[in-house]
Amino acid sequence: MIELTAAGFTYESEFEDHDETEGVSDLHLSVGAGECVVLCGRSGCGKSTVLRMINGLAPQFYPGKLTGTVRVSGKPIASFLPEEKTRLTGSVFQDPRSQFFMSLAGDELAFSGENLGIAPAEILHGVQAAADRMGIAHLLDRPLDQLSSGQKQKVAIAAATMLSPKLLILDEPSANLDEKATSELVETLLQLKRSGTTLILSEHRLHAFLEVADRYVLLDQGTVARTWKKDEFAALRYEDVKPYGLRHPDMEMAGINLPSDGLPAVAASTQGWEGRSLTYAYRSSSHALKGIDIDLKPGSVTALTGENGVGKTTLCKVLCGLLRQQGGEVYYAGKKRSAAGRRSLSYLVMQDADYQLYADSVGNELVLGRRLDDALRLRAYEAMDAFGLRALRDRHPASLSGGEKQRVTIAAAYCSDAELIVLDEPTSGLDGDGVLNVAAWSRKLAHAGKTVVIITHDRILTRLACDHVLELKNEPEGMRRIEP
Questions:
Q1: Please, is 384 exposed, middle or buried when counting C-beta atoms within 10 Å of its C-beta (0-12, 13-18, 19+)?
Q2: Residues 52-56: contacts with CB under 8 Å, at least 24 apart
Q3: Other CB atoms within 10 A of residue 418 CB
Q4: Is the dihedral of CA 214, 220, 224, 225 positive or negative?
Q5: What is the DSSP string of 197-239?
């Protein structure tokens, strides 16, 4: 189904200080019909580039130089007409919102069928079947911009499978999904595979896909470095994959190493953040936060968990003052705080990194909006070293991979003076080394007296970094505390 021979791609840079940006080179990869291949490797190693070469987006959408040959279903991918490609392949991007054309979830699922002139009755049947497969039938009438990132991910997968393509290409499909949704995704992929669909995906949460994968292909420095059959990969220990920066279920046993130059710890008696009877509801949704009580202590890291769409990000936006609560109050250090007051005391690292990248270089992004002095400069260099950004210091943030962008936003949070720092799914685009870095620097922020909240589905991160675990639920009790 897929044949890459001596294939490579170099991005044409949009920025004056870079003539071109490295992609991948000398790739030899063959994927048979009905096979499932998982691409793995460090963030920025070229996984997304390989997928873009296979679906033709590189160089048709991403300017650059393609070398070697890329053939799909026996033909060069560049020779496919748009209609042929739409019927043959389905793609799910790393950032689901970047592939949406419509405003409502149901319309997005119907979009490709309408473009191909398929009969309305057949489209409606296909939309319902795809929605049922992904468990999103209740979202079909919802505006896409009001869905959680996990819900958007489900919509994107449903839209990509609506026409039952022979080839499905997925770029980190589980990145924003909770454990239940990830299991449902794997079951969906198994059904597609049994029907003859070829699957190629890039992932960091590798062991979740053992049931459906046939091979794991490791990319390192833009080329294929290793290939494992499913059983071979399942037998690997953490020590075996650590040199490649891969995640492994046993990572939590490794622990984290905090820098020796830690900031002074906060006094234990300091009062933290409290939310009392917090209520918030979106106008076009029946879902709402109702009477939520939450206590967050300085010097601690709290994981906020719960199913996709339960309201985790909404709750944290209320705490940070980005949304004004419709009921209840928020207190910090024993004093009631207005939404504006909370905004000046908090920093929210968003799930979609592109929303909060503004500067013309990584270095400038870390100090944006603050007076640059020796202390801030030193802190910025500490952050760049912690998140592996020193070599990217002069790069434009828009030229980075998804995982690299996420690291930049977390480093910017570290450089800020906020008292409450919220990280919204900070490891969704990160490799194993990135997870360890997020855990280590979350702990350092807590040691410095910051109140850290991590919205996450990542159990490894929770066990490495968090003192407390709160689960938000769509039930009368609203929230429950879990032992980390």
A1: buried
A2: 52/9, 53/4, 53/7, 53/9, 53/24, 53/77, 54/2, 54/4, 54/167, 54/169, 54/200, 55/85, 55/89, 55/91, 55/169, 56/80, 56/85
A3: 19
A4: negative
A5: -EEEEE-S--GGGTTT-SEEEEEETTEEEEEEEHHHHHT--HH
Amino acid at 47: K
Higher pLDDT, 387 or 260: 387
Which residues touch 187 (CB under 8 Å, ≥6 apart)? none
Residues 175, 202 contacting (CB under 8 angstroms): no
Nearest to 426 by CA among 186, 149, 158: 149
What residue type is assigned to position 456 of the chain? Answer: T
Structure tokens of 198? 């070829």
Enter the tokens of residue 173. Answer: 């499909």
Asked whether residue 65 carries a pLDDT value surpassing 60, the answer given is: yes
Q: Are 443 and 256 in contact (CB under 8 A)?
A: yes
Q: CA distances (Å), 273 to each of 42, 265, 308, 323, 338, in order?
A: 36, 17, 24, 16, 13
Among 20-29, 66-75, 189-198, the range scoring the smallest mean pLDDT is 20-29
Tokens of 451: 């109140």
In terms of DSSP H, where are the helices of 13-163?
A: 47-54, 57-60, 82-88, 105-115, 120-134, 149-161
What is the predicted pLDDT for the residue at 264? 47
Closest to 83 (Cα-Cα) out of 163, 159, 169: 163
Q: What distance in Å separates the CA atoms of residue 450 and residue 28, rounded to the nearest whole number? A: 48
